Each structure stands twice: as structure tokens, then as C-alpha cells.
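not sure who needs this but someone in the group chat was asking about Putative Zn-dependent protease with MMP-like domain from Antricoccus suffuscus so here u go. i didnt clean anything up, its just raw.
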Amino acid sequence: MIEVEPERFEQMVTTALDGLPPELGKIMRNVAVTVDLDGGRPGLLGLYEGVPLTRRTNNYAWAMPDRITIYRLAICAICHTEEQVIEQVRRTVVHEVGHHFGIGDHRLRELGW
């Protein structure tokens, strides 16, 4: 386990989001990305909550934003170096963004995420 300061971890998440292809950022809709610095369930690195873009209908108007949460303690618990944390944050962000686009866990694992 490695300890990463909250501010540094948040910067890692920001960097991971900034590293997404620009065309994905242009089509992400009504989703907020948050960082849970102190909680979460053991083993849960990230969580997508909402309605994937592929399942939204005209009735989706006025819905609360979807949420992607990235869990600092869970990620730090499985890493031994800051480089591992950076890579795991990147992988987790991509995985959860994949859910926003309607890609399921099985397919994400097939794709290496």
C-alpha cells in the first residue's frame, strides 16, 4: 500500500480525464466525475452510477447528472508505487467512462480495461 496525498490523487484523476481522446470528451453528456478520498468499499476502485448514453431516451431530460466516483483508498491499497497509482487511476477512469458509453464489465475486460 502506498499513501498518496488527496491533492496529488485528485490531480492524477484530472490528468487521466485530460488524457481521454478529445472526441470522447465532446460526446460525454451529463456526467460528473468525483473523487472519494476517504471511503468506498474494499476492492471497489471506481463506480459509475447513472443511465449510459446508449440507454437514454427523450424521457431523460432534466435527469440528475450521472456520477463516476474514483476511490483513492482502494486504489492506493493495491499499489506499491506512485507510478502504479497513476496507471491504476488511468485504467479506472477509462473503465468507468466506458460504462457511461454503455460498455459492460465483460467487454471492458476483453478490451483490457
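also Strands lie at 31-36, 46-49, 66-71. if thats useful
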